[in-house]
Amino acid sequence: MTISNELLDELLKDCKRPEDLLGDAGLMKELKIRLMERMLGAELTAHLGYEAGSEPPAEQTNRRNGVATKRVKGSDGEVPLSVPRDREGSFEPELVKKGQTRIDGVDDKIIGLYAAGLSVRDIQAHLEDLYGLRVSPDLISRVTDAVLDEVREWQHRALDRMYPIVIFDALRVKIRDADSRMVKNKAVYIALGVTRDGEREVLGLWIADNEGAKFWLSVMNELRNRGVQDILIAVVDGLKGFPEAITAAFPETMVQTCIVHLIRHSMNFCSWKDRKAVAADLRPIYEAPTAEEAARQLDAFEKKWAGKYPSIAPAWRRAWAEVTPFYAFSAAIRKIIYTTNAVESLNRVLRKTLKTKGSFPTEEAATKLIFLAIRNFEKGGRAVREWVAARNQLAIMFTGRFDA
Question: What is the pLDDT of residue 208?
Answer without folding.
Answer: 82
